[in-house]
């Protein structure tokens, strides 16, 4: 008993600090919810992201509304170089690629800037295209020109490079997510078509020049339902025949999609008709100035091969019948299903109050991602697929779904706290 009393007395003395040299243990720092959310969304380390997600979800007071406000809050951007930034690097699957940037010297982090991503042609580099494009856009745009060997923008690595170029620009500079454009000349124009159609919801507009698409790729133009295009081609082009762009224009007419088509008669002393005349520039820049991405359109069309199952705005294909699958070459024609243009297609519309109507071809399962801008969570939701009832009931917002989708998409204009997965019923035999 005496020993226990002495232990208590010693404890009291140590805790008061009297006559003691003991080192005080600092109180643990409690990280704010805002800091946890931002770190979760931005960390490239998937293991760290998993730990951060669990810390956030362990707080029972966390709500969809609170997390949404944090994600939508104005980011604080660190000081970054302005003017010509010619020697940036991007690593894709262990391979390093060069990226040339132009940031207006008058850049202010408090203001959101449009971004133009420009893809060079064969025999050129991003740095050379930066020098050509910089005076065209003036002080009002951020310009990003990656370099890819031989201008082979029709490969999967090149696709990944373009997507990472956009993400890197958005991490460092205040980019307006509703004003990101993709353009390119010759091979770069082919890349603008391919990457732009597969990832159409990222872009406010596409501007391919002196380029085209093979017939087997024409079905992907349907993805441009909500993404305007501005096409420029020389009538006397001997490298990329002008009928390549004319055939795309005809296909867009069939789809009923609006577009701008500019066909010029001019020739360059070195390049012949295969070039971009300067006098076409003012109208193109004026078109850039007018365009704004529609972040959450009520109707979507998505056509997919078996290698592009990432989200397409508020829908995603999850499983399909046997369909064409592109290899590392996004214009690969070795697959017999590619030759026959066997792709999956989904047309989805929010029709009336809390009703989603879907037409699906070669689709076995798909997901819809929803928020309060698209539906009313307080009322039952109805989903009809191919004329048959797929779902009827209420859906509940989830903080975990909101966070996972925000990390995946890196787009504060598209936050989805609900994911609903639908199995497509087979047609009656």
Task: Break the fold down into its secondary structure elements and pairings.
Elements: H1 2-16, H2 33-42, H3 46-57, H4 64-72, E1 83-92, E2 95-103, E3 113-119, H5 126-137, E4 142-146, H6 156-172, E5 175-185, H7 187-198, E6 205-209, E7 230-234, H8 243-255, E8 260-264, H9 281-290, E9 299-304, E10 315-320, H10 336-339, E11 344-350, E12 355-361, E13 363-370, E14 381-385, E15 388-393, H11 399-409, E16 418-423
Parallel strand pairs: 3-4, 3-5, 5-6, 7-8, 12-14
Antiparallel strand pairs: 1-2, 2-4, 9-11, 10-13, 11-12, 13-16, 14-15
Dominant shape: globular
Helix/strand/pairing category: alpha/beta
**Biggest sheet record:** 6 strands, mixed
Number of helices: 11
Low-confidence stretches: 1-21
Instruction: Compute the separation of the termini in Å.
Output: 86 Å
The secondary-structure element order is HHHHEEEHEHEHEEHEHEEHEEEEEHE
Strand order across the largest sheet: 1-2-4-3-5-6
Average pLDDT confidence is 91
In percent, how helical is the residue content? 25-40%
Beta-strand content estimate: 25-35%
CA radius of gyration is 26 Å
């Amino acid at each position: 008993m005496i020993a226990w009393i002495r232990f208590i007395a010693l404890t009291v003395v140590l805790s008061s600090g009297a006559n003691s040299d003991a080192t005080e243990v600092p109180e643990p720092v409690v990280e704010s919810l805002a800091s946890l959310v931002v770190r979760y969304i931005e960390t490239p380390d998937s293991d760290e992201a998993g730990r951060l997600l669990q810390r956030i979800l362990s707080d029972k007071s966390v709500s969809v509304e609170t997390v949404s406000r944090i994600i939508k809050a104005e980011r604080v951007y660190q000081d970054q170089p302005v003017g010509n930034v010619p020697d940036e690097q991007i690593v894709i699957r262990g391979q390093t690629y060069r990226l040339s940037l132009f940031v207006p010297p008058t850049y202010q982090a408090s203001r959101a800037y449009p971004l133009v991503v420009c893809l060079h042609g064969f025999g050129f580099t991003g740095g050379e295209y930066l020098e050509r494009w910089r005076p065209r856009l003036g002080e009002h745009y951020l310009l990003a020109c990656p370099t890819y060997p031989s201008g082979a923008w029709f490969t999967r690595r090149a696709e990944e490079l373009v997507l990472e170029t956009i993400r890197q620009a958005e991490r460092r500079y205040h980019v307006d997510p509703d004003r990101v454009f993709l353009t390119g000349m010759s091979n770069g124009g082919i890349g603008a078509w391919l990457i732009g159609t597969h990832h159409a919801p990222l872009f406010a507009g596409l501007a391919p020049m002196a380029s085209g698409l093979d017939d087997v790729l024409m079905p992907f133009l349907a993805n441009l339902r909500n993404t305007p295009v501005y096409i420029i081609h020389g009538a006397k082009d001997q490298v990329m025949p002008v009928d390549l762009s004319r055939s795309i224009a005809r296909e867009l007419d069939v789809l009923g999609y609006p577009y701008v088509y500019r066909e010029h008669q001019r020739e360059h002393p070195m390049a012949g008709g295969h070039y971009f005349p300067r006098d076409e520039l003012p109208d193109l820049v004026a078109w850039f100035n007018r365009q704004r991405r529609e972040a959450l359109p009520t109707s979507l069309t998505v056509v997919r091969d078996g290698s592009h199952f990432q989200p397409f705005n508020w829908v995603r294909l999850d499983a399909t019948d046997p369909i064409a699958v592109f290899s590392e070459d996004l214009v690969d024609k070795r697959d017999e299903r590619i030759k026959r243009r066997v792709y999956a297609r989904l047309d989805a519309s929010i029709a009336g109050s809390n009703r989603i109507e879907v037409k699906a071809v070669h689709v076995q399962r798909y997901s819809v991602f929803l928020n309060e801008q698209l539906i009313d969570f307080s009322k039952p939701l109805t989903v009809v697929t191919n004329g048959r009832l797929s779902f009827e009931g209420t859906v509940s917002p989830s903080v975990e779904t909101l966070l996972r989708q925000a990390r995946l998409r890196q787009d504060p204009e598209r936050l989805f706290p609900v994911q609903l997965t639908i199995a497509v019923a087979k047609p009656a035999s």
